[in-house]
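sry for the spam today, last one i promise. struct tokens for design, 314 residues
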């Protein structure tokens, strides 16, 4: 715009644009998480579907027509309700012992989410502590921890899990602990790298000169800078844990046979898959695929949003 009084040229400030999400108007910022979430329809769909699956897992006792472990031998290998021979209350059919496939899937979903979240949390706590310790102490402590990380990452995860299960025995709690043992190394390496990248910063040197204690230094200065990669790593690690639990259950060394599990359901269906009873293993496999896919989509979006530099590097 040109001012007619003095001829000076001034530029009007650009209008601040607005966006709408679920009827709520807001001004999007360049790195605002809400705006990044609202403009990605695939992530919204994955998040809504994941919330639905979590709700079904929490309400499994109320939304299933029959108990997941109850056997109806007279109704064994009943096909889904929309096919010839299918009937209620067996919506997705039954297995070779007459267990309702739908009930097994919903209760198995609860077990998968429980094992995935708890194992990832335990791995995160152990890995973050050891990573902070290695990055702050350095010296022999760092060498010992990082050599343990190298050994852990060099071994096949399935083999390590099988060895610990043989040592500790089968069971839901034992499996959660075993899976947690197989995942701490990645967190430790990530946190240690973050600590090393900021330990020589000016504000860290100033805090050290002022006599800040080791615990305050690790929590206030190091851990706070590692929150973003830790959150991203946890979101990506949960699908790995869920697949590992299903694999161990499929091999017969995971949860007890009396506990509903997607891996056990797939294994039971494999026994009759080639006789035309496809629904026994196909429906649990589809549920496992949908669950892991939704978490992976959300984890990839979280990584791209919280760590844009990693996205540009690839």
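last one done:
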């Amino acid at each position: 715009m040109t001012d007619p009084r003095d001829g000076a040229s001034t530029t009007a400030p650009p209008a601040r644009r607005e966006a709408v999400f679920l009827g709520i108007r807001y001004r999007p910022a360049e790195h605002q998480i809400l705006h990044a979430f609202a403009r990605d329809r695939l992530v919204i769909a994955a998040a809504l579907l994941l919330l639905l699956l979590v709700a079904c897992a929490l309400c499994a006792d109320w939304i299933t027509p029959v108990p997941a472990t109850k056997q109806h031998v007279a109704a064994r290998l009943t096909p889904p309700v929309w096919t010839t021979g299918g009937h209620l209350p067996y919506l997705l059919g039954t297995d070779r012992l007459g267990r309702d496939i739908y009930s097994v899937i919903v209760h198995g979903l609860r077990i998968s989410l429980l094992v995935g979240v708890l194992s990832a949390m335990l791995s995160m706590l152990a890995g973050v502590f050891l990573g902070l310790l290695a990055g702050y102490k350095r010296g022999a402590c760092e060498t010992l921890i990082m050599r343990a990380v190298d050994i852990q990452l060099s071994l096949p995860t399935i083999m390590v899990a099988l060895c610990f299960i043989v040592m500790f025995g089968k069971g839901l709690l034992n499996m959660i602990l075993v899976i947690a043992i197989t995942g701490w190394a990645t967190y430790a390496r990530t946190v240690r790298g973050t600590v090393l990248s900021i330990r020589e910063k000016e504000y860290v040197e100033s805090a050290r000169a002022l006599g800040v204690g080791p615990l305050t230094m690790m929590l206030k200065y190091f851990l706070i800078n590692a929150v973003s990669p830790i959150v991203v790593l946890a979101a990506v690690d949960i699908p790995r844990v869920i697949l590992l639990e299903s694999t161990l259950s499929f091999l017969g060394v995971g949860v007890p046979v009396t506990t509903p599990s997607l891996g056990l359901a797939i294994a039971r269906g494999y026994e009759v898959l080639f006789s035309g009873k496809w629904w026994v293993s196909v429906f649990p496999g589809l549920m496992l695929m949908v669950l892991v896919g939704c978490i992976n989509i959300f984890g990839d979006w979280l990584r791209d949003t919280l760590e844009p530099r990693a996205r540009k590097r690839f």
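The domain at 48-313 is CATH 1.10.3720.10 (MetI-like fold). ok im logging off now
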